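Give me structure tokens for this 125-residue protein.
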Amino acid sequence: MHKLVAEPGTALLRGKDALPVKIWGYNGMAPGPVLRVRQGNELRVQLQNGIHQPTTLHWHGIRIANAMDGVPGLTQEAVEPGKTFDYRFTCPDAGMLWYHPHRFSSEQVARGLHDHHPGAVPHPN
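Here you go.
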């Protein structure tokens, strides 16, 4: 099982005079880690909420059961601070997809809670 911890951290912006800035990331990274799974295999991820706001994980472009889709108040309850939620689903399609929160998403994604890696390549069967 993969474990993603949404937590505060710091990152250096690009440039020779980079200063550390406060971020929220997954496992101390922003963007978060790449999760690789083969088409047709099961993905299991435990989200641990280490920030002060409720959060979720939404999986863009993956055809999965609503209970795993990460839309608080619609498909699941938000994961409260200090709590965990286990996501478990089969990945029916190949592709390069991304995850991010769907609770306070404009703030949480802007602070670094996402896994969008520009230039990443799909992981085919």
